[in-house]
Amino acid sequence: MIKSEMENEKVTNAAGLELFRIKYLGTKGLLKQAMGEMKNVAIEKKKEAGVLLNDLKSDLEQYFNQLQENINTGKNAEKISVIDVSLPGDPLPLGGRHPISLVQNKIIHIFQRLGFAVAEGPEIEDDWHNFTALNLPEDHPARDMQDTFFISKNPDWLLRTHTSSVQIREMEKGKLPLRIICPGRVYRNETISARAHCFFNQVEGLYIAENVSFADLKQTLYFFVKEMFGERVQIRFRPSYFPFTEPSAEMDISCLICGGKGCNVCKKTGWVEILGCGMVHPQVLENCGMDSRKYTGFAFGMGIERITMLLYEIKDLRLFSENDLRFLQQFAPAL
Ligand SMILES: [Zn+2]
User: Fold this and answer.
1) What is residue 199's three-state secondary structure?
2) Are the beta carbons of 205 and 300 closer than 8 angstroms?
3) Helical H runs in the chain?
């Protein structure tokens, strides 16, 4: 009788299940009551009754477990309206920083310790801030070095090709001494490959004050690479040309992969180029209303992708913008 009643019970949620448990399996439940009746059973029937009761007990427990499982898996459930607050919550996936952000932050922190402040500017620029003020007049051949995304011509609006435009904006404010780094995204019309993309990230630095010399530039960058890549790294400068600096140089570091012996990364030279730099051209200072006889300064710029590829031995630059979680999740613990 108890068994048929049990099978007619409609249990669809956790609260109903608890009522079922109290009714049949609780300390004052029907099973306990039936067991209590044993004392009234005649001795010769006791064994038979005991077997029946044991069967009933296991049936009830089995049925209870089945109901519980149905509720947990949502089977037969109308709607589980009771929220069990004691259950652990669904875990939220923890995100990580993009490798470019990790390296950018590291670069910023190193220069902040030297007193550099972060300056930012617009990604859409006018001709003056991106080219002309940087000593790249309209007919200057160096403009051909950068294929530019123009948004409009006359007046010219374009996607900045470097973050040097931010330096111009800061210099125009006229506050000296000026010691800034400018991180940000820049755009160039280049064919996308493992080593080039139409957008990438730069960090540029600028220091203008009285009596700033190339020795200051060298020491600043030497400090930076030691903090960034470790004590054992070597640097070398090669003469170069940029319209906005004079003299100009490109700086190499000793190859991190082979330690200078020569490998594929350094093309067997033992050196890897990481940035361009130089003393700010007097014309650039004058363009921003500064007295170039009184003030001097140095500037440098590097691609964050390049540094990141060196640090993590990443071989394809396109990985940074493909949003492939298999790639990005490798950096997740590096919060
Ligand atoms: Zn090497």
Assistant:
1) strand
2) yes
3) 2-8, 14-20, 30-36, 43-73, 99-113, 127-130, 164-172, 214-229, 282-287, 304-312, 325-328
Contact 207, 263 (CB under 8 A): no
* Ligand 1 center–CA 274 separation, angstroms: 13
**Distance, CA of 276 to CA of 265 (rounded, Å):** 19
Q: How many Cβ atoms are within 10 Å of 53's Cβ, its own excluded?
A: 16
Q: What is the 271 CA–ligand 1 centroid distance (Å)?
A: 7
Instruction: Please give the distance of CA 172 from its chain centroid, rounded to a whole number.
Output: 33
CA of 184 to the centre of ligand 1 (A): 28
Give, as residue ranges, everything with CB less than 5 Å from ion ligand 1: 255, 257-258, 263, 265-266
Low-confidence ranges of the chain (pLDDT < 70): 1-4, 6-7, 74-81, 142, 144-146, 333-335
Determine the distance separating the centroid of ligand 1 and the alpha carbon of 145, expressed in angstroms. 28
Centre of ligand 1 from the C-alpha of residue 265, in Å: 5
Residue 58 C-alpha to ligand 1 middle, in angstroms? Answer: 73
Q: pLDDT tens digit string along 109-137?
A: 999 999 999 999 999 999 999 999 999 88
Q: What is the spatial order of strands in the sheet that 199-210 belongs to?
A: 117-118, 178-187, 199-210, 295-303, 271-280, 245-254, 235-242
Number of helical (H) and strand (E) elements in the chain, helices listed first: 11, 10
